[in-house]
Structure formats: C-alpha cells, structure tokens
Amino acid sequence: QLQASGGGVVQAGGSLRLSCAASGRSFNRSGMGWFRQAPGRERSFVATINWIGSSTFYADSVKGRFTISRDSAKNTVYLQMSSLKPEDTAVYFCAGRTVGVGLAIRQDLYTYWGQGTQVTVSS
After folding, report:
1. Which residues of 94-114 are buried (b: 16+ CB within 10 A; e: fewer)?
2. Looking at residue 25, what is its pLDDT?
C-alpha cells in the first residue's frame, strides 16, 4: 500500500527526490516517516512528518540536507535529498502509521512499509 520510488545513482553533492505513494487507503491522517538501511547495518530513522505537514523531525546525520514533505491531495510523501554524501548510500523505506497523527522515530510505531528504493552516492 506504500510504493517508494525515485532512487538511483548520483554523485556526491547531488540531489534526489524520493516519493512514497499510498494506495488502497488514505494516510492523510497518519504520521509518516522515512528510514534507511545501509549494507551490513540495521535500518535507521531518517525523517518524520505529522499528518498535516506542519511539523517535521530529522536524524542529525541528515538535518539541513534532507526535507520531508507531503501532498495530501496526492496521498504522497516526499524526501528531498540534497548535498548527498557516500554515507547516504542505502535502501530507503517509507512508512505510515495507523494509530497516531504525530511524529515518530521508532520503527515499531509504523504499521505500513514500502518496498524500499536504492540510493547510491558515488564519491
């Protein structure tokens, strides 16, 4: 019910925009998040946004470089990534909450997960 897209290969310093499109149900009253999993590492929090898009929170490692946003009319959440670094290389997952309209950094607070999209940043 969540489809992530927009990943690819980009040089360091470049930008990408990831999209997470929902289908089958509306997430317009759900907090949403992005997580990532680098090779050999556990999946970790990247960014979260509340249901109305008025509040966001970021991992320290991406603060100031990534921006999470949402378009309720399109039932889609975005992750704009700029000034990308090789350490940003990972599979990126979007996630949606079923209970809770606010921000969430814990993975267990999310019920729905997208399939992941690969982001590779070359040096």
Report:
1. bbbbeebeebbeeeebbebbb
2. 87
Query: What is the C-alpha separation between 12 and 104, in angstroms, rounded?
Result: 29
- The Cα–Cα gap between 40 and 69 comes to 29
In Å, how far are 5, 41, 75 from 78, measured between CA atoms?
Answer: 10, 24, 10
- From residue 61, give the alpha-carbon distance in Å to each of 25, 29, 68, 71, 83: 32, 28, 14, 25, 12
3-state SS class at 73: helix
Residue 122 above 90 pLDDT? Answer: yes
Q: Which amino acid is at 7?
A: G
Contact 55, 47 (CB under 8 A): no
DSSP H or E run through 76 = strand 76-81
Task: Dump pLDDT digits (tens) for 92-110.
Answer: 999 999 888 889 999 999 9
Which structure tokens are listed for 85? Answer: 């670094």
How far apart (Å, rounded) are the C-alpha atoms in residues 48 and 42? 18
What's the token pair of residue 88?
A: 């940003």
